[in-house]
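Convert to structure. Protein one:
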Amino acid sequence: MIEFLSQIDTQVFLFLNSFHTPALDQFMMLLSHRFVWVPMYVMIFAMVVHRYGFVGGIIVALGVALTVTLADQTCATLIRPYVHRLRPSNPDNPISQFVHIVWGYRGGSYGFPSCHAANTFAVATYLSYVFRRRRLAVYSLFAWALFNCYSRVYLGVHYPGDLIVGALIGALMGYISYRITEMVGIWILRHPLKPNHDTVHINFGSLIPEINMSNSVLICATGVLTTTVLLFISLFAYFA
């Protein structure tokens, strides 16, 4: 059964990894990098502080740090050393000769489960509770997590199975961490986290009317803007 699932996983990986073009190689490398998403992280933190206040924002920030730590360590420390599943890009893996490798990047030796998938889905799941009932924010967060996962297949460093298991672990850790955050909020604030504001008022001066934007729209806009900038940089570098 495991061998059968592994064969399907390999075939699906090779199919998805075959859709590539040099013009998008740099884009996928950037998309997969953690630090290019710092503007979105800052925006989300600002929205959390605006929504729940400074103390609530700190509690949520610590909760995010906890969920990433739990997800990352569960995958990297507890599971990977015992499973020893070679990445498809690993030269010791027989299928590596059929894998599209970007700029010689092969990742580490083992890839099951995916820490990228675990971390992004942990954050997306955790924040989906923070911004619950704000569908656009929730959809945006999970779209970000899915794009990150796809970039790992494009780069040839993870099988789809690595990503699926990593995502499930991340979602579980995100849920657990949010429940812990609720208890911390009740202990410190004497009540669960309650939103105070859902709309941001932006005033550019008397010449431009005041703009009212929801937290969800700002989070979505930041993610779209970041992705667009990364794509523009990549295409410009390729065609220039």
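Protein two, convert as well:
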Amino acid sequence: MKLSEHLADYDSDVRDTILQIADTCVRISKGFASRQSQSDTQNVYGETQMALDKWADQVLIEDLRESGLVKYLASEEQPDILEFDSQGDLGITLDPLDGSSLIGVNLAVGTIVGIYKGGILMPGQMMVGALYVLYGPLTTLTYTLKKGVHEFVLDDTGQFVLQEESIRIPEGKIFAPGALRKNYLAGHLKWIEALEADGYKIRFSGSFVADVHQILHKGGVFTYPGLVGNEQGKLRLLFEGNPMGFIVTEAGGATSDGRRSLLAIQPNAVSHRVPIYIGGKREINLIENINKEGYE
């Protein structure tokens, strides 16, 4: 089944926006060979941009503006929310190319998208859907519109076709822990030690979207925590935590900042950073219970 057929029963604005993003991501997947170099610019967070970062951001913004389907758009590469001339009320968040520092060593990277109605600066639980495209040995698109989590693979004809329907996160003993251990907060360290004692194995590539994709299929948990001197962590709520957390939650998992669901947090800006835990309910309950004991 093609992606367009799978989306046939959804609202036309959401369906057509996902199909537009899918088409643009096919273009992005073809652009890796010629755009691997670093640019001489930084994004709004002071991170050095890749040429492909800037290009992916530009083509996604241009295509969504021209589609007439999207009213509001926030991108990790842009300082402010963009507003387009549209009769609709869709709001889109974009991480155009998550993990782009890994392009030069040919590891998987991805595009992450959150979908809202009526605005963007609202809790993730208000999303109507989310998706990500993973550019790996296969290019895959995984989406949810609150009726299951479904994965499609790009075939030789340039079409996304159904690979797995109604994905449920399994139980598994792998974990993807970001940041330096010497900077862990006490509660997080106790949680890590509990996972290690229970036989969890590290599986961490440095690409957030790829690591969460693995957790979705194999179980376990991804984390980039708050740290000593940087209690808010590194990753962004709007662009990374909410969309990927929404997908994993819809697949039967959970997400947290160590105390509560990421999806319950009211963002205070497009740059809002949070500690992130995404994975199975068991692992998420464990970190929240440890922090309730006063280890934060």
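The chain has a mean pLDDT of 93. The chain is about 30% helix and 25% strand.
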